[in-house]
Write the structure tokens for this entry.
Amino acid sequence: MLRKLSKYVHPYGPVVLLGVICAASEAVFELLIPMVMSDIVDVGIPSGDTSFILKKGGIMVCMALISLAFGVGSAVCSSVAGQGFGANLRAAEYEQLQRFAFSNIERFSTASLVTRLTNDCTNLQMALMMGMRLLVRAPVMMIAALILSMRISLRLSSVFLVSLPLLAFFVGLIICRASPLFRQLQEQTDALNLVVQEDLSAIRVVKSFVREGAEEEKFAARSDAMKNTALRAFGMVVINMPVMMLIIYGTLIAVMWFGGHLVYSGALDPGGLMAYFTYITQIMVSAMMVSMIFMMLTRSIASGRRILEVLGETPAIRDDGADPALEVADGSITFDHVTFRYHASSEDAVLRDISLSIPAGATVGILGGTGSGKSSLVSLIPRLYEAQEGTVLVGGRPVQDYPLHTLREAVSVVLQKNTLFSGSVRENLQWGDPNASDEKIMAACRAACADEFVMAFPDGLDHDLGQGGANVSGGQKQRLCIARALLKSPKVLILDDSTSAVDTATDAKIRAALKDIRGMTKLIIAQRVTSVMEADLILVMEDGAIADSGTHAELMVSCPLYRSLYESQQKGVSIDG
């Protein structure tokens, strides 16, 4: 895991090295101060040599200032490296998400991906920042202080033969118990975020069904579960402190007892005992810091594994074998015995043995009941999903031959769920063409019948749509999404039930405007027969297969399903009339 994550620290390698040197130097200078203090106690004070005391005191002050400078340098370097590492990790994870196919994204929940991008990255970032300072400083200080204390009295240092193994045993025990709890805590963070995300995105549904109380109970249950796990996990960490202090104070009492006897017998000087006390305190404090770092690393390891799950996920749809110079020649589409399943292991196919040929510039209507495979069919054209059997061709070439960017630039899709982003009308529509002028934008709006309400806004194209287009109606969202798709000037335009929230008069205007656009292949999924009855070809889908196809006149004769659908809708129109 460390090897895989290290490449995100690599750009900050010199900063990390400098921070490690500063942390080690800070520890060394701190360790030299007790030696100087020992000289003052053993030599300066007994002889009454004031100049010697002042000289050694000045050296101690200089050492303290140098140690402080190295400490500041270490803190700055660790902050720069930690923040850079976190930024690189988030960027890599986000780029990986952009490469995911729909099937990859479905493996992880949205809430989990948000947690992995934020909370988990922050845990690793903090681990690096703290590790650069403490993981270097603590071992250096512990080892050096142990060596210096053994130089003062080897007999007295035998105390460590008991205290340090005891310390290591308790730290290891606590880490083994806490590690699975930290992973469970991150998973429960995912679950809590999922409740918040669903409630906020569907707040209108929650309120309309008066489900606020039930959702509050659900949130409270997830929050309590997270709290209980956190209490157990951090309770293990909290136990670490009293155990440490117990061992530290026990060691100090032992040193005082045996050290006092050594001073009394003349085997140890009083100044040496004072220095020894300082060193043993530094040793035990360093041991405590190391244990705390291991606790933090335990949580970071859980976060690191979750992040590497995302980074290690292989995108289901890739363009490794594509020709980067290949362009989509035209909007012709061919399905050659295509079979598709959402999951390769699934027995039931969503689409079964689809064969179909659509010439460039044609308008194709697609009708069918819910679950008949209409959306799945058109999703194969821009490779939002991949067919398991058969071949999908666009412009006379298999879709796998094109780079994904090239293929999807030639295909505009307006999905069933209309999505707008926070920002102005102009910023949203320029997703179709970032360089589009206001004139071109308004031309697309006129084709989508969106110009009438866009120009009614006080600030026109600069009108802020709010989060997810909260400031416009469902029908207005649909028209803006159609205008955005038209701005791409695609060779293939796919409208997946994209006028369901639009009145029939406006729907007719949009169809008339689309009819005037030449050279663009148009696939229109609709529930209303009137939305597709003028199409060059109408497909009637049932149970993942094409039940029948033809023009409106042909289907009225040959397809009972189409005829009954048309007659039932016409009857509804007459009743409304």
Strands lie at 333-340, 351-358, 363-368, 389-394, 397-398, 411-414, 492-496, 521-525, 537-542, 545-550. Residues 212-265 form the longest helix (54 residues). Residues 351 and 544 are 4 Å apart (CA to CA). The first strand starts at residue 333 and ends at 340.
